[in-house]
Write a structure and sequence with these properties.
The chain is of the alpha/beta class. The protein has seven helices and five strands; from the N terminus they run βααβααβααβαβ. β4, α7 and β5 form a beta-alpha-beta unit. α5 crosses α6.
Length: 131
């Protein structure tokens, strides 16, 4: 299983050429193994980006997210209390973006790698990442 960062989810479905070779392989493996995980906070991020005019999708963001939910190998993980609390108790220094903190906490709680191209997250030593 792997967790996709929000931008990786977007690129995977809309601009796969932006993915690194390692990220694309990990996603292909995740599809085959029925193991793609996305945090529900990423749905919030996508909707917020669309509403603020910073992201344009080919279809309505609700429909876009719904189509992803319909993929049998994708599993959305809600932000439960364990993840929420872990996001404010991350060890060491982690940047303050709340969505990134929740995504990192989700990967750590589930003990799975996070696929991300975000260098700030890649540099965080307490999290396994793929890029």
């Amino acid at each position: 299983m792997i967790l996709l960062d929000t931008h990786v989810w977007l690129w995977w479905l809309s601009n796969p050429e932006k993915l690194s070779a390692a990220a694309a392989r990990a996603i292909d493996d995740g599809v085959r193994e029925n193991g793609i995980v996305i945090s529900s906070i990423s749905s919030w991020e996508v909707a917020l980006l669309v509403i603020r005019g910073r992201l344009e999708l080919a279809i309505n963001h609700r429909d876009w997210i719904g189509k992803t939910e319909g993929l049998p190998f994708v599993h959305f993980v809600p932000v439960n209390n364990l993840i929420a609390l872990r996001s404010v108790e991350l060890p060491g220094a982690f940047h303050p973006d709340p969505a990134d903190r929740i995504i990192a906490a989700t990967a750590m709680t589930m003990a799975i790698p996070l696929v991300t191209g975000d260098q700030k997250i890649i540099d965080y030593p307490h999290l396994q990442t793929i890029w």
